[in-house]
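Retro notes (design track)

What went well: tokenization of the new backbones is finally stable.
What didn't: we kept losing track of which sequence belonged to which structure.
Fix going forward: every design gets posted as structure first, then sequence, in one message. First example under the new rule, 496 residues:
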């Protein structure tokens, strides 16, 4: 998709489809709408009123104006000016591009405020809204046809805006990469494949990379990752990408560039293991590597856009399957930091592979750790399908991750690391077991992870709900959503 900037008067813009945002405030529908209405000699206003269109958020009205420079005008309801919905520039741009595609129009234009943020969000909305996972369709599908989007921001400084377009393009590409990885079928998107993708990203964008195969995982004592991967014919992989800003200080001269580790759960298929899932619960379990996908996408974008921090992207990856070598209920393994873990449920595998990865991150000496994992169904029960659970051992850092999510337009909500539930993870046979009792399943999972981060400032996002959608909504498609990529990119550029 190509983006053009039109900084002259909108009246001069010839386009098959012009998107015009409309606020729902009575008598104050916004300058873009007033101007378009005036250009049409009041026709637009008459049609809108006859159709009962009042600019409510999410409402759209298409009006043909064959005599105008814009052949069609799509009125985009933006809700009350100043409300959260009114800022949903991504949603408006996504709606515009989808309308253009549905009508097989090769181009469309959107009237915008002359700000960087508005332009960036519009680009994101267009690219994220146009996303489709249709590479397996044999029959010709009506794919996107809208290849040019003109951003009409009268009076804006085109040079400054070009930077915003480049940034938003890198962000959207990263989100769409994560979506693709999640949507790819599990026999293709294996741990070995994820490692290949990571290598490609590293090569193309100049990141450091190390990949551990099964022998190396065993040699290093990542016994939990090894155990979870034991039941598959495809080897597990441990992936470590590093972004270093130019001139990063290692600490030798006293100064050290702050560092953060992004750790993503990479279970490429979760059958449950011998604690086998029932068929319906297994249907979407190719998505159990969405945390890993978010980390890979974010690392790609961070490599392109830069960050003031040293950023580590860490992905422990395995298939949770069953064969004669698979780990069993009652097994005990020692994690990378020497803690013994009794496996009382092989379906609580995510926390096991993350435990080794968190120890690894702690040993790197990072200042911050964020992990992302499709960790528990319980979190989806607690917060619904659109919101991630946020757990942190540091209130200020948890707040910063939340602020980054807010800025990214992703929904997260704080959950407690309730100390009283720690006793649920006690076992007479080992230091800790991998499951609690029925209640508070998202919390006991987070408490388990906490045992492996030491004193490092840490935040855990349980993305089991928002990582995968059962229906499309605005610029978020059905299937893999790319959730958390934008939060991580936002975090890597702000204060940590
Ligand atoms: N990958 C699942 C969690 C999950 C469930 C993700 C639904 C997305 C949608 C995880 O490995 C799992 O199986 N968790 C168990 C934990 C239980 C055994 C303590 C669960 O949530 O049931
Ligand atoms: Mn599981
Ligand atoms: Zn899982």
């Amino acid at each position: 998709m190509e983006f053009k900037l039109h900084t002259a008067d909108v009246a001069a813009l010839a386009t098959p489809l012009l998107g015009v945002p409309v606020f729902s405030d009575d008598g104050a529908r916004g300058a873009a709408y007033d101007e378009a209405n005036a250009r049409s000699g009041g026709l637009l206003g008459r049609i809108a009123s006859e159709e009962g269109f009042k600019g409510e958020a999410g409402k759209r009205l298409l009006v043909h104006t064959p005599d105008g420079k814009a052949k069609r005008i799509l009125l985009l309801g933006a809700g009350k000016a100043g409300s959260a919905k009114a800022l949903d520039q991504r949603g408006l741009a996504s709606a515009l591009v989808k309308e253009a595609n549905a009508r097989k129009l090769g181009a469309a234009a959107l009237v915008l405020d002359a700000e960087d943020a508005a332009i960036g969000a519009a680009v994101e909305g267009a690219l994220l809204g146009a996303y489709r996972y249709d590479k397996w369709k044999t029959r010709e599908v009506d794919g996107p046809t809208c290849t040019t989007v003109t951003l009409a921001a009268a009076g804006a400084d085109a040079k400054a805006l070009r930077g915003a377009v480049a940034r938003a393009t890198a962000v959207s590409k990263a989100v769409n990469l994560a979506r693709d990885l999640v949507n790819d079928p599990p026999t293709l998107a294996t741990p070995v494949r994820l490692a290949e993708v990571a290598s490609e990203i590293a090569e193309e964008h100049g990141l450091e990379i190390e990949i551990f195969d099964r022998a190396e995982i065993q040699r290093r004592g990542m016994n939990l990752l090894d155990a979870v991967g034991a039941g598959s014919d495809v080897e597990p992989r441990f992936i470590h990408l590093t972004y270093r800003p130019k001139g990063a200080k290692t600490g030798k001269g006293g100064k050290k560039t702050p560092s953060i580790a992004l750790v993503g759960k990479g279970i490429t298929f979760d059958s449950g293991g011998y604690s086998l899932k029932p068929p319906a619960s297994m249907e979407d379990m190719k998505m159990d590597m969405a945390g890993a996908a978010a980390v890979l996408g974010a690392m790609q974008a961070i490599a392109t856009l830069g960050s003031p921090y040293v950023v580590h992207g860490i992905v422990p990856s395995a298939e949770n399957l069953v064969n004669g070598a698979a780990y069993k209920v009652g097994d005990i393994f020692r994690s990378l930091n020497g803690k013994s873990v009794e496996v009382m449920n092989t379906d609580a595998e995510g926390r096991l592979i993350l435990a080794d990865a968190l120890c690894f991150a702690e040993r790197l000496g990072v200042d911050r750790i964020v992990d992302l994992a499709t960790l528990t169904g319980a979190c989806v029960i607690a917060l619904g399908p659109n919101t991630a659970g946020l757990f942190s051992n540091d209130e200020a850092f948890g707040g910063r991750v939340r602020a980054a999510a807010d800025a990214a337009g992703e929904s997260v909500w704080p959950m407690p690391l309730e100390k009283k539930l720690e006793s649920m993870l006690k076992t007479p046979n080992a230091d800790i077991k991998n499951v609690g009792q029925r209640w508070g399943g998202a919390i006991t999972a987070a408490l388990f992870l906490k045992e492996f981060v030491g004193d490092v400032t840490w935040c855990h996002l349980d993305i089991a709900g928002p990582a995968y959608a059962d229906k499309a909504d605005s610029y978020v498609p059905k299937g893999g959503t790319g959730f958390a990529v934008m939060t991580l990119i936002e975090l890597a550029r702000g204060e940590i």
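Added context from the reviewer: The mean pLDDT is 96.
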